[in-house]
Amino acid sequence: MPGFRLATVERLREQQEQVCARRLREATQELAQAWKHREELAEQLAASTSGPIPADQLVMAAMFRDRLRDDIRASSAEVERCSAMLGEARSAWMHAKAQLQAVQLLHERYRQEVRAGVARAEQREADEFAGTRSGSARRQMGGVS
Questions:
Q1: Residue 42 in contact with residue 112, Cβ under 8 Å?
Q2: Tag placement on the chain: N or C end, fewer CB within 10 Å?
Q3: What is the CA 13 to chain-centroid distance, rounded?
Q4: Is residue 145 pLDDT above 80, yes or no?
Q5: Nearest Cα residue to 90 out of 31, 28, 30
């Protein structure tokens, strides 16, 4: 029986699945970093609004808080972008994983067919050997009579 013809396809699917898994990990890390940055900005804003502010620094404090709010909005947009990228990466990985599993299933079926073919050949050989032995035993018994 010839070798598994889809071995190259299986190898390529494995590589594709690994690439997609790596991208998924990277997207997960990027989202975590974006989320952490947004939380740090929110903490800075919360800290900037607590406590009394001297009158001569009121305008600067207000400008700083406005700048933090703008940064938080930009960071929130980055979190949304990273979240969308994570969804796309997860979808691509699931698709690659499904394709790999399909080829692996075909390969397993091929291995089962090979094992069954080998078992049939061994059984046929055993049957032939048993038939040969019983035929020669009959001849020997027939010749003794």
A1: no
A2: C
A3: 11
A4: no
A5: 28
